[in-house]
Amino acid sequence: MGVDSTRLNIKNKQQRQKLYAKLKHEQQKTRHKERKARAKEERENPALKEERLATNVPQTIDSKRVFDETIEAEAEGEDDFMGYFEDATKEPKVLLTTNAHAKKPAYAFADMLMDVVPNVTFVKRKREYTMKDMAEYCSNREFTDLIVINEDKKAVNGITFIHLPAGPTFYFSVSNIIDGKRIRGHGRATEHIPELVMNNFNTRLGKTVGRLFQCLFPHRPEFQGRQVVTLHNQRDYIFFRRHRYVFRNEEKVGLQELGPQFTLKLRRVQRGIKEEIDWEHRADMDRDKRKFYL
């Protein structure tokens, strides 16, 4: 334990601080001697180090996560994405648009997504078209997914994904957008279909979100392009990254980031085209920092 200077029964502040520094120095010397002795013992007997590391595991928020009974559980009810996964020859066809009267940041983010998602078409949003109108338009033209970027006060703050023809609808908040051009040492992406890596989508809701993202990319990635898109879920924040494998020799491989970077957080899941709410994030859900939903 550290030394608490307020508990030293000395009224003179300077003398108290001096004694505190002396005690702290002695404490550090003792700790250093103990570490040196332990290191010597562990060099002579490596099993001691293995035992210490096995028992001295630091506690994290993730390790103290509240158990969710839907982890590793199968999805309930009808699978809205089954049509895409049952047909290995089916290719995704995505329409991308923005909210009405969008400004420059929304179009800049749309350019980033068009560089990432294969087989995507951008259409400028007209004010008179509702979300259901656009979904009907897309379904009649064999689009499989609709993406709508939301921008407010010249900042992108949300994105809606609709799986066609009958939903579901997902709304995410968007933050920390960084264009690939601003990433130091970034590479240039090619037109190859990337490999998709999904991390930590473990609950029933998380698997549903994962299947949504899988539907945006073709079944067969082009591995010769060495590109990989990663969606990493950590504490219900989904971090988007894109890299290229760089093979330095026959044994070593590195990663070159291509960009862009951004973070998603699920806010709402609705059945169909923005119909009944299946799940919605509420403010009181953040009270318990150890409970996660994806």
Strand residue percentage = 25-35%
The averaged pLDDT comes out at 89
Gap from first CA to last CA: 38 Å
Number of domains: 2
Low-confidence stretches: none
SS content category: alpha+beta
Assigned CATH class of the largest domain: Alpha Beta
> Over all CA atoms, what is the radius of gyration?
26 Å
Please trace the helix and strand order, writing H or E for each element: HHHEHEHEEEEHEEEEE
* CATH fold topology of the largest domain: Rossmann fold
Q: How many strand elements? A: 11
The general outline is elongated
Largest sheet: 11 strands, mixed
Number of helices: 6
Helix share, percent = 25-40%
The CATH superfamily of the largest domain bears the name: Brix domain
Protein name: Brix domain-containing protein
Biased composition (Polar residues): 1-12
GO cellular component, one term: preribosome, large subunit precursor
Biased composition (Basic residues): 13-22
Q: Could you walk me through the main structural features you see in this protein, from its secondary elements to its overall organization?
A:
Pfam families: Brix. Residues 13-22 have a biased composition (Basic residues). Residues 1-47 are annotated as: Disordered. Residues 1-12 have a biased composition (Polar residues). One of its GO terms (molecular function) is rRNA primary transcript binding. This protein is α+β, with helices and mostly antiparallel strands and 294 residues long. It has two domains: 13-54; 81-280, Rossmann fold (3-Layer(aba) Sandwich). It is 28% helix and 27% strand. It contains six helices and eleven strands. The protein has helices at 13-44, 46-55, 82-86, 104-116, 131-140, 204-214; strands at 94-98, 120-122, 145-152, 155-163, 169-178, 195-199, 227-234, 237-247, 253-257, 261-270, 277-280. Strands 1, 2, 3, 4, 5, 6, 7, 8, 9, 10 and 11 form an eleven-stranded mixed sheet that branches. A hairpin with a 5-residue loop joins strand 8 (237-247) and strand 9 (253-257). Helix 1 (13-44) crosses helix 2 (46-55). The longest helix is centred in the first third of the chain and has 32 residues, at 13-44. The two termini are 38 Å apart. The model has no long low-confidence stretch (mean pLDDT 89).
